[in-house]
Design goal:
Elements (H helix, E strand, L loop, with lengths): L12 H21 L6 H12 L13 H4 L5 H16 L3 H8 L7 H6 L5 H14 L8 H7 E4 L2 E5 L3 H19 L2 H22 L8 H8 L4 H6 L1 H8 L3 H11 L5 H11 L5 E5 L5 H14 L12 E7 L10 E3 L5 E3 L7 H6 L3 E8 L15
Parallel strand pairs: 2-5
Antiparallel strand pairs: 1-2, 3-7, 4-7, 5-6
Helix pairs in contact: 1-2, 1-7, 1-8, 2-5, 4-5, 7-9, 10-15
Length: 377
């Protein structure tokens, strides 16, 4: 929900998918020019895989990923949808499915679709940097693509491109803190999650809550992952969902008889976001207890319902996680090493550490300026 902070950040998953496919075509052309054998079928299948890589996202992407469908990831849904399309249309879609699921024997194609240096990230960083105006996120995507090659069925980066990769990782770290994990973005996402959780709570208690048929279906039903593989109509229902279902429902919910749902919906529509405090340490229980009592009094809600207005949790940011999927550097001598092992790049070693912050959100009408706040907040 970066548009709550950056009004120009109104790109869509469709824009991103097309942009990623364009960059993938450039990448495959570059690899071919370097002598890598890539057939027309492999090329088309990889383009299809990157085009459909986010197709399993539901409304508001990651924000509601485990709220509407608890325990079901968007990668799992993408796999099911691509498999359904492959069975229906044939052509190179079955090969695209193998590339997407990393079951194709030439593993580097999957790395181009999903890894720590994939085409997905190259596109969304460049795109989000442009639309938000956060210049620190600028990356040289075209140069990085020209530096890519394949050795031992693994994507590698030519040694002369190592500083472009360092810039890419640094830009990714900055974009997460300044855009994706911006305090206002986190606050808006947590409010949205709280709204949907309240609706599911009411529905479970047998209280009627209006929504479009696809949204109502997933609000009213708890569906295990295996059912999506067995019942084809579930995927049809899921693919009918988008952001508009949720926004239109929130406009209705602001008039609901349930005070908690109506208040949260109205605050979100009017952009009256929760105040949010970030800390390097876990939230002081004394502060939480104080705010809990204040929220109950000021928002006119029971102690049981305070959790919908007082939200705590943690966020983390790691630009590069060494081990597992690596960003491999190809030296002029033909040796390959993990970029984190480069002795003259201490910044990358630092960026390999996961930074974790704790947050606490509550309505701004609850004023703490006359009360003592622990130093760690």
């Amino acid at each position: 929900m970066a548009d709550y902070v950056y009004p120009g950040a109104l790109h869509t998953r469709f824009h991103h998918a097309l942009g990623a496919m364009h960059l993938m075509q450039n990448t495959l052309d570059s690899l071919r020019n370097k002598g890598q054998e890539i057939s027309e079928d492999e090329c088309e299948a990889t383009l299809i895989a990157i085009l459909l890589h986010d197709i399993g996202h539901g409304p508001f992407s990651h924000a509601l990923e485990y709220v509407l469908l608890p325990g079901i990831s968007h990668e799992y849904m993408s796999k099911l949808i691509i498999n359904r399309l492959a069975a229906h249309f044939g052509g190179n879609l079955p090969l695209a499915y193998r590339v997407f699921t990393n079951t194709y024997e030439r593993k580097f194609f999957h790395q181009l679709v999903s890894s720590q240096l994939d085409i997905d990230r190259l596109d969304y960083l460049k795109r989000d940097c442009f639309y938000t105006g956060v210049s620190e996120g600028e990356i040289g995507a075209d140069r990085i693509i020209k530096m890519l090659d394949v050795r031992n069925d693994q994507v590698v980066v030519e040694e002369k491109g190592i500083y472009s990769i360092e810039n890419f990782l640094n830009a990714r770290r900055l974009m997460y803190w300044q855009v994706y994990l911006h305090k206002a973005s986190v606050s808006a996402e947590k409010m949205l999650v709280s709204v949907v959780q309240r609706v599911k709570y009411l529905v479970d208690k047998g209280i009627s809550v209006p929504a479009s048929p696809p949204l109502a279906f997933f609000l009213e039903n708890h569906i295990p992952p295996q059912d999506f593989e067995l019942l084809t109509e579930l995927l049809t229902q899921f693919t009918a969902l988008d952001d508009f279902d949720v926004w239109s429902a929130i406009k209705l919910w602001q008039h609901h008889t349930d005070n908690v749902l109506a208040t949260l919906s109205r605050m979100l529509l009017e952009r009256k976001l929760f105040r949010i405090q970030l800390s390097n340490h876990e939230i002081d229980p004394a502060l939480y207890q104080y705010l809990s009592a204040s929220v109950s009094q000021e928002m006119h809600v029971s102690a049981e319902d305070v959790s919908f207005f007082l939200i705590q949790g943690s966020i983390s940011n790691a630009a590069y996680i060494s081990g597992g999927q690596k960003i491999n550097i190809l030296t002029k001598e033909g040796k390959i090493f993990d970029i984190a092992q480069a002795s003259d790049l201490p910044n990358i070693k630092a960026m390999s550490k996961i930074v974790k912050k704790y947050y606490l959100c509550w309505p701004k009408r609850i004023n703490l300026q006359h009360n003592s706040i622990p130093d760690n907040l």
